[in-house]
């Protein structure tokens, strides 16, 4: 099967994002509107996959920071992989991965790091790329564990979470307002510093920019007491997944169980919207080798189960 590779340029941006809306497995993280917020932080290596002059797939990618011999799909996103609309199945996907290898080899690249799109984000089964990577000798080098609720078949919510929500609802109200972002970011920044001696990956200004570009996909739900934000969750919403990109609670929020109120209301809202999954995100450290089991169990008590985020390395 003839798969031609075309290097991405800014002239492709509109066609790229139009294609993402038609794909079986693309989310906002694949779009140029999202990836472009990084500016010049990464050296882009994205490509379009063509067959007989027609677009059949997209591959968002950039060179690894500090090592121009490695291409990652994509270093500025949680996952990447080939976005397609169903034509790249079976042998065609094997050929597509082969075409990517040839393209990057010709440009001196030695290794491709492929961050698989977790299956929950696909509209239909779309893991042909995982099989194709196996056929090309790729090795799985990292695996993170996310906790996800299947909103059609939710496991029972634990009694502890039910009690905490009842307690929280006596004092806490939950509201949806992106205008609360600065207050939420202050809670998030304090929480990460207190608990992990860390800072958010994004800045408040970056999230505000992305929210302005994706007002339907990027939204905020906050727990409020006396008009003060004490906890919240920043959501990245796709066609069938509501994903908790950032979760934070102040010490006051912890005392009253504010996150239980936020998650309880938001999970119900996600189900009513027709979404299939509510995803809490991963609970890993040290490139997947350490699981924060307490955090994972907290998430799972809302009725969730495990979803793997896989990373593969393909020698070029």
From TrEMBL:
Domain BioF2-like acetyltransferase span(s) in chain numbering: 160-285
InterPro entries registered for this protein in UniProt: Acyl_CoA_acyltransferase (IPR016181), BioF2-like_GNAT_dom (IPR038740)
Keyword terms of this UniProt record: Transferase
Annotated SUPFAM superfamilies: Acyl-CoA N-acyltransferases (Nat)
GO molecular function, one term: transferase activity
Name of the protein this chain belongs to: GNAT family N-acetyltransferase
Organism: Paraburkholderia dipogonis
């Amino acid at each position: 099967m003839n798969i031609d590779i075309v290097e991405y340029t800014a002239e492709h941006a509109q066609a790229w994002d139009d294609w993402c809306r038609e794909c079986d497995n693309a989310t906002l993280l694949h779009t140029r509107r999202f990836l472009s917020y990084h500016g010049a932080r990464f050296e882009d290596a994205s490509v379009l996959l063509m067959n007989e002059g027609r677009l059949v797939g997209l591959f968002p990618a950039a060179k690894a920071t500090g090592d121009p011999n490695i291409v990652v799909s994509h270093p500025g996103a949680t996952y990447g992989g080939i976005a397609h609309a169903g034509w790249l199945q079976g042998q065609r996907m094997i050929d597509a991965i082969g075409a990517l290898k040839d393209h990057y080899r010709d440009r001196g690249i030695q290794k491709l790091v492929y961050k698989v799109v977790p299956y929950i984000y696909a509209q239909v089964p779309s893991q042909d790329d995982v099989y194709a990577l196996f056929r090309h000798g790729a090795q799985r080098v990292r695996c993170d564990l996310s906790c996800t609720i299947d909103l059609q078949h939710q496991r029972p919510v634990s009694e502890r979470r039910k009690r905490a929500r009842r307690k929280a609802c006596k004092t806490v109200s939950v509201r949806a307002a992106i205008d609360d972002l600065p207050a939420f970011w202050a809670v998030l920044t304090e929480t990460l510093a207190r608990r992990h001696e860390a800072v958010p990956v994004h800045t408040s200004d970056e999230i505000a920019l992305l929210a302005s570009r994706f007002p339907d996909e990027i939204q905020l739900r906050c727990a409020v007491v006396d008009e003060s934000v004490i906890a919240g969750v920043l959501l990245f919403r796709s066609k069938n997944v509501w994903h908790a990109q950032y979760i934070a609670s102040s010490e006051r929020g912890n005392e009253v169980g504010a996150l239980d109120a936020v998650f309880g209301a938001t999970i119900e809202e996600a189900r009513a919207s027709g979404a299939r999954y509510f995803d809490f995100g991963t609970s890993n450290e040290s490139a997947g080798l350490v699981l924060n089991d307490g955090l994972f169990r907290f998430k799972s008590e809302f009725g969730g189960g495990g979803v793997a985020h896989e990373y593969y390395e393909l020698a070029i």
